[in-house]
């Protein structure tokens, strides 16, 4: 399966005006966001775009009230001070400022892994069985109901923050200690035994899948952002299998009301086949990040990818006017 690479609609960087590259923030994923943001900022500036770094939502809102920026490239990660939970999107909608990525509903829904899985199940899309753990829930009873092995993770975090791999009942001790100090809901999910994949989404296009092969036992925070020995095979599958995983990822993305760009994580269970895991609506743009790797596979370099993502913030009239000027 060969994906056609999208092309920039025009070449004039002035059409974007002054762009705020929103990074950092106060979520648990701040450091990853800062690295992603610096990379995006450098890429946009390399293409002549008048782009500026803004750290966190309060600083952005103050700048927008002073009308210092015309659009926002959101590369905040996470929630509670991150930019993926719908709060930022709601504020920007109220201010009438265009921004990259999914809207309020898609951002809020996909930030919540439990609710995303409920939507997928209602649409008949495959996802591992799970238990919803409210604060104070009996984690051991949930594990017995699902059967080991399982993963335990916050419903509303990313970047493998607070994720526990439970192979034996004794492994629950650390997860329970974390739960005692964590205010939000946790997701306990049956562990998929098989291969791990991710599929980048750009508009209506599913990018080539990437098969992730960590050197360790699983793809944890270290393997994602620090280790240099994690293997990324792209495309991850071939023929009909590759077509199937891209189609499933795009259906999952749309079912969760997501738009613009993002990434869908998928596992292939040895018995059950493809299983949807979660959606990332502001994917990382670090040296280890996966959407840029998939984009390169179809001929889109990093600078062009950032340009194309930002193009999605332009209204049709703006694009049409730019094309007329170009002609």
TrEMBL record:
Entry's EC annotation: 6.3.2.4
Biological pathway: Cell wall biogenesis; peptidoglycan biosynthesis
GO MF term list: ligase activity
Keyword Cytoplasm (UniProt): yes
Catalyses which reaction(s): 2 D-alanine + ATP = D-alanyl-D-alanine + ADP + phosphate + H(+)
Localization (cell): Cytoplasm
Keyword match Cell wall biogenesis/degradation: yes
Cofactor(s) listed: Mg(2+); Mn(2+)
Keyword annotations of the record: ATP-binding, Cell shape, Cell wall biogenesis/degradation, Cytoplasm, Ligase, Nucleotide-binding, Peptidoglycan synthesis
Domain of life: Bacteria
Residues covered by the ATP-grasp domain: 117-311
Family statement: Belongs to the D-alanine--D-alanine ligase family.
Its job: Cell wall formation.
Name the record gives this protein: D-alanine--D-alanine ligase
Record organism: Lysobacter hankyongensis
Gene (UniProt): ddl
């Amino acid at each position: 399966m060969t994906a056609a690479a999208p092309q920039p609609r025009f070449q004039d960087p002035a059409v974007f005006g002054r762009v705020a590259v929103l990074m950092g923030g106060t979520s648990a994923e701040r450091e990853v966001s800062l690295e992603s943001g610096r990379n995006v900022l450098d890429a946009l500036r390399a293409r002549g775009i008048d782009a500026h770094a803004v750290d966190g939502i309060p600083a952005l809102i103050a700048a927008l009230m002073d009308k210092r920026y015309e659009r926002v490239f959101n590369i905040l990660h996470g929630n509670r001070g991150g930019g993926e939970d719908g709060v930022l999107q709601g504020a920007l909608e109220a201010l009438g400022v265009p921004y990259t990525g999914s809207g309020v509903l898609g951002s809020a829904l996909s930030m919540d892994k439990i609710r995303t899985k409920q939507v997928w199940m209602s649409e008949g899309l495959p996802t591992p069985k799970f238990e919803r753990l409210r604060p104070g829930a009996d984690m051991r009873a949930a594990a017995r109901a699902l059967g080991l092995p399982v993963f335990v993770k916050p419903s509303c975090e990313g970047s493998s923050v607070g994720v526990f791999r439970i192979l034996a009942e004794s492994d629950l001790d650390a997860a329970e200690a974390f739960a005692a100090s964590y205010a939000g809901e946790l997701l306990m999910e049956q562990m998929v035994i098989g291969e791990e994949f991710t599929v980048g989404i750009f508009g209506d296009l599913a990018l080539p899948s990437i098969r992730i092969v960590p050197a360790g036992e699983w793809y944890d925070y270290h393997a994602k952002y620090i280790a240099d020995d994690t293997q990324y095979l792209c495309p991850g599958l071939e023929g009909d299998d590759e077509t199937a995983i891209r189609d499933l990822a795009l259906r999952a993305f749309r079912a969760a009301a997501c738009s613009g760009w993002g990434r869908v994580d998928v596992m292939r269970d040895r018995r059950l086949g493809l299983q949807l895991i979660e959606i990332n609506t502001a994917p990382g743009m670090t040296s280890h990040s996966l959407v840029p790797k998939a984009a390169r596979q179809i001929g889109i370099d990093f600078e062009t990818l950032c340009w194309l993502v930002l193009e999605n913030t332009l209204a049709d009239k703006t694009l049409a006017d730019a094309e007329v000027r170009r002609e």
